[in-house]
Design brief:
four-stranded antiparallel β-sheet, mainly beta, 0% helix, seven-stranded mixed β-sheet, 11 strands
């Protein structure tokens, strides 16, 4: 069974840093595309950061220069490094990825279960 399992959320003070992890559980061949979304209470889910192909990275204006998306292929895991956190970053964060299960097969879209990030002032 293949799943995306998130971790790393919690309570952090403004100006601090936090790293969210999204690990592909089960046997996969590769992570093809990846992204992080967030949803604050009463708000629509928004795209925070994503990588579609090598050299094509997107960051929302609100996090540009503070957040970095990256991956560790050996661990089948990708990350969201969050620096200089602000109270307005408080939200539930969700990872999303297209995973290639076998070298010859198509990639399949998966979502993580969500992890809560709270930034205090």
């Amino acid at each position: 069974q293949v799943e995306l399992v998130e971790s790393g959320g919690g309570l952090v003070q403004a100006g601090g840093s936090l790293r969210l992890s999204c690990a592909a559980s089960g046997s996969i061949f590769s992570i093809e595309t990846m992204g992080w979304y967030r949803q604050a209470p009463g708000k629509q889910r928004e795209l925070v950061a994503s990588v579609i192909t090598r050299g094509t990275t997107y960051y929302a204006d609100s996090v540009k220069g503070r957040f970095t998306i990256s991956r560790d292929n050996a661990k089948n895991t990708f990350y969201l490094q969050m620096n200089s956190l602000k109270p307005e970053d408080t939200a539930d964060y969700y990872c999303n990825a297209e995973l290639r299960i076998t070298p010859w097969g198509a990639s399949i879209d998966y979502w993580g279960q969500g992890t809560q990030v709270t930034v205090s002032s």
